[in-house]
């Protein structure tokens, strides 16, 4: 009886397993194969002839200045976006967790950007950060600065080609939009964590005369470490793949100041039919994500049993 | 005490202001006539309220809005049922390597879809579903398997095994146990999964822009980006388009926020 159910059960999930085997692992292998080929023009696609060229596409990519810019952009975007979304998320969670009247209302406001598409977020923020023609005809935030008499704060936002070391300052606009979208997510994670802390620990600390500040840093934060790790991993993998937001907001920007690997991949594959190079970028992105996600998945599966 | 409370409210208000600024700009711009966009101030409310931008955006995006519904509703429903039955198997029917297989499935949730995109399109072309809404439905159902299975598996692991065992004892088979015991108590999980899938599929862009090539087949997110066009951006139409694109998922959020949060937390694996 039971054995029969196991067999039926396996049959029932078989289609899903096969689908994932093909659509995830099969297709990834296919992309890897293409990335090792010379499939870099449409005529070759039509004739269906392409040959194995080893790591040539990868070598070319790492020598490509645009791709180098993409990697630096990804690095800086990830650092500042993670820092922004996590610190703002923690702050939101602390403030909401105090349980003052109206907390629920604020919580709902903080979370609603998560319900919206990155494309919408990008569209709206591209209007807010539209610099206008400076200095005479500012637009967006620049216009607000002008009205407040803060003319010195007016600048080109995502059209700016200035960089500090390898950090293109045009990214700031994109980072702000991304933090706006995802800080609420971090807040939700930390709120769930804060509410899971047993009350008697906090009470005991209060009896011992610990200040609220001390309770937070010495008791709550250490207990929230797993949440911080989850947040870093979840937001990190989003940031390594970021596409829609940048696409809708700025595209590549002048001199690729806001370009990211996903945009370059999209253009190579779908605009110039350079499938092998596009596939190589896709595989590099996959490797980045895998480095972050695989240890996380393995540890959370082990943790279960 | 009072000062501390005031300070908390002050900080809450400042953050809320930051979160709400785009909404203010969105609404103020949407309802301005085009003349006011050019000459006057984007931070002011419209001097003359106008629906012309909204109407124009709706005319342009209307067909795509319909596409998005045709895409999202079936894809969401199929995903939910598939996830439910998978979740049942992974939580109640124990078999060898179940955990390993489940982890391998879960990985599919995190991959950059760029790494499967080109083969996927070739595959859709070969089965004649490329550029169609059913093709996109297939894509979203398949790549939805990890998250929907995860949410249902977590939900069913809270259900005592004895309940399922008892049904088996009473002679109920695999499917009867599902339909009579598990399915009736699954409503909360279904709500979470349906909201999660609806929101994600509605908001999705990469598959939408690469799998559908002709404008009349494109979901609304793609149409919104194309709305910008090449010449002068009509910002009132653009903002109205953004509003129209965001509205369905915002309505879901407002009506069912609690379940939305649960879905959100399920997406971070350790829910």
UniProtKB/TrEMBL annotation, chain A:
<feature type="transmembrane region" description="Helical">
    <location>
        <begin position="223"/>
        <end position="243"/>
    </location>
</feature>
<dbReference type="Pfam" id="PF00528">
    <property type="entry name" value="BPD_transp_1"/>
</dbReference>
<feature type="transmembrane region" description="Helical">
    <location>
        <begin position="108"/>
        <end position="128"/>
    </location>
</feature>
<feature type="transmembrane region" description="Helical">
    <location>
        <begin position="167"/>
        <end position="192"/>
    </location>
</feature>
<feature type="domain" description="ABC transmembrane type-1">
    <location>
        <begin position="71"/>
        <end position="298"/>
    </location>
</feature>
<keyword id="KW-0813">Transport</keyword>
<protein>
    <submittedName>
        <fullName>Sugar ABC transporter permease</fullName>
    </submittedName>
</protein>
<dbReference type="InterPro" id="IPR035906">
    <property type="entry name" value="MetI-like_sf"/>
</dbReference>
<keyword id="KW-1003">Cell membrane</keyword>
<feature type="transmembrane region" description="Helical">
    <location>
        <begin position="75"/>
        <end position="96"/>
    </location>
</feature>
<keyword id="KW-0812">Transmembrane</keyword>
<feature type="transmembrane region" description="Helical">
    <location>
        <begin position="275"/>
        <end position="298"/>
    </location>
</feature>
<dbReference type="InterPro" id="IPR000515">
    <property type="entry name" value="MetI-like"/>
</dbReference>
<comment type="similarity">
    <text>Belongs to the binding-protein-dependent transport system permease family.</text>
</comment>
<keyword id="KW-1133">Transmembrane helix</keyword>
<dbReference type="InterPro" id="IPR051393">
    <property type="entry name" value="ABC_transporter_permease"/>
</dbReference>
<keyword id="KW-0472">Membrane</keyword>
<feature type="transmembrane region" description="Helical">
    <location>
        <begin position="7"/>
        <end position="28"/>
    </location>
</feature>
TrEMBL record, chain B:
<keyword id="KW-0813">Transport</keyword>
<feature type="transmembrane region" description="Helical">
    <location>
        <begin position="7"/>
        <end position="27"/>
    </location>
</feature>
<feature type="transmembrane region" description="Helical">
    <location>
        <begin position="69"/>
        <end position="90"/>
    </location>
</feature>
<feature type="transmembrane region" description="Helical">
    <location>
        <begin position="97"/>
        <end position="121"/>
    </location>
</feature>
<feature type="transmembrane region" description="Helical">
    <location>
        <begin position="133"/>
        <end position="156"/>
    </location>
</feature>
<dbReference type="Pfam" id="PF00528">
    <property type="entry name" value="BPD_transp_1"/>
</dbReference>
<keyword id="KW-1133">Transmembrane helix</keyword>
<keyword id="KW-0472">Membrane</keyword>
<feature type="transmembrane region" description="Helical">
    <location>
        <begin position="177"/>
        <end position="198"/>
    </location>
</feature>
<feature type="domain" description="ABC transmembrane type-1">
    <location>
        <begin position="65"/>
        <end position="256"/>
    </location>
</feature>
<dbReference type="InterPro" id="IPR035906">
    <property type="entry name" value="MetI-like_sf"/>
</dbReference>
<protein>
    <submittedName>
        <fullName>Carbohydrate ABC transporter permease</fullName>
    </submittedName>
</protein>
<comment type="similarity">
    <text>Belongs to the binding-protein-dependent transport system permease family.</text>
</comment>
<feature type="transmembrane region" description="Helical">
    <location>
        <begin position="235"/>
        <end position="256"/>
    </location>
</feature>
<keyword id="KW-0812">Transmembrane</keyword>
<dbReference type="InterPro" id="IPR000515">
    <property type="entry name" value="MetI-like"/>
</dbReference>
């Amino acid at each position: 009886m039971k054995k029969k159910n196991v067999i039926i059960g396996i049959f029932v999930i078989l289609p899903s397993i096969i689908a994932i085997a093909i659509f995830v692992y099969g297709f990834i292998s296919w992309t890897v194969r293409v990335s090792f080929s010379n499939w870099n023009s449409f005529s070759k696609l039509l004739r269906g002839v392409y040959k194995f060229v080893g790591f040539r596409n990868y070598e070319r990519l790492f020598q490509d200045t645009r791709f180098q810019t993409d990697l630096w952009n990804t690095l800086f975007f990830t650092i500042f976006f993670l820092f922004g979304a996590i610190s703002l998320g923690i702050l939101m969670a602390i403030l909401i967790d105090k349980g003052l009247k109206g907390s629920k209302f604020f919580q709902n406001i903080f979370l609603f950007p998560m319900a919206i598409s990155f494309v919408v977020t990008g569209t709206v923020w591209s209007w807010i950060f539209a610099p206008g023609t400076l200095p005479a005809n500012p637009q967006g935030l620049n216009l607000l600065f002008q009205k407040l008499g803060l003319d010195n704060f007016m600048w080109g936002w995502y059209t700016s080609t200035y960089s500090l070391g390898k950090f293109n300052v045009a990214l700031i606009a994109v980072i702000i939009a991304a933090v706006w979208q995802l800080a609420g997510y971090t807040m939700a994670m930390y709120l769930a964590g804060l509410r899971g802390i047993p009350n008697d620990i906090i009470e005991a600390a209060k009896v011992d005369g610990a200040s609220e500040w001390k309770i937070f840093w010495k008791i709550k934060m250490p207990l929230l470490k797993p949440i911080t790790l989850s947040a870093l991993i979840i937001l990190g993998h989003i940031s390594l793949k970021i596409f829609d937001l940048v696409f809708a907001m700025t595209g590549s920007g002048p001199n690729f100041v806001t370009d990211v690997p996903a945009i370059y991949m999209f253009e190579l594959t779908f605009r110039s039919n350079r499938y092998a190079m596009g596939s190589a970028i896709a595989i590099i992105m996959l490797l980045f994500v895998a480095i972050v996600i695989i240890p996380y998945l393995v540890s959370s599966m082990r943790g279960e049993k | 005490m009072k000062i501390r409370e005031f300070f908390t409210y002050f900080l809450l208000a400042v953050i809320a202001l930051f979160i709400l600024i785009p909404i203010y700009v969105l609404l103020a711009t949407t309802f301005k006539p085009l003349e006011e966009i050019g000459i006057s101030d984007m931070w002011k409310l419209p001097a003359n309220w106008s629906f012309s931008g909204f109407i124009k955006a709706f005319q342009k995006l209307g067909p795509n809005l319909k596409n998005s519904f045709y895409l999202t509703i079936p894809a969401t429903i199929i995903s939910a049922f598939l996830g439910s039955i998978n979740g049942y198997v992974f939580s109640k029917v124990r078999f060898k390597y179940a955990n390993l297989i489940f982890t391998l499935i879960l990985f599919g949730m995190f991959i950059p879809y760029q790494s499967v995109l080109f083969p996927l399109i070739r595959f859709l072309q070969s089965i004649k579903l490329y550029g169609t809404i059913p093709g996109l439905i297939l894509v979203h159902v398949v790549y939805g398997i990890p998250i929907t299975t995860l949410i249902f598996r977590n939900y069913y692991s809270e259900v005592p095994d004895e309940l399922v065992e008892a049904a088996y004892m009473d002679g109920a088979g695999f499917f009867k146990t599902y339909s009579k015991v598990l399915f009736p108590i699954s409503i909360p999980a279904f709500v979470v999964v349906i909201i999660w899938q609806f929101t994600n599929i509605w908001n999705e862009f990469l598959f939408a822009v690469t799998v559908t090539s002709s404008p009349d087949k494109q979901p609304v997110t793609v149409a919104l980006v194309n709305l910008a066009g090449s010449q002068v951006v009509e910002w009132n139409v653009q903002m109205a388009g953004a509003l129209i694109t965001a509205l369905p998922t915002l309505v879901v959020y407002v009506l069912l926020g609690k379940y939305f949060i649960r879905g959100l937390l399920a997406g971070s694996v350790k829910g």
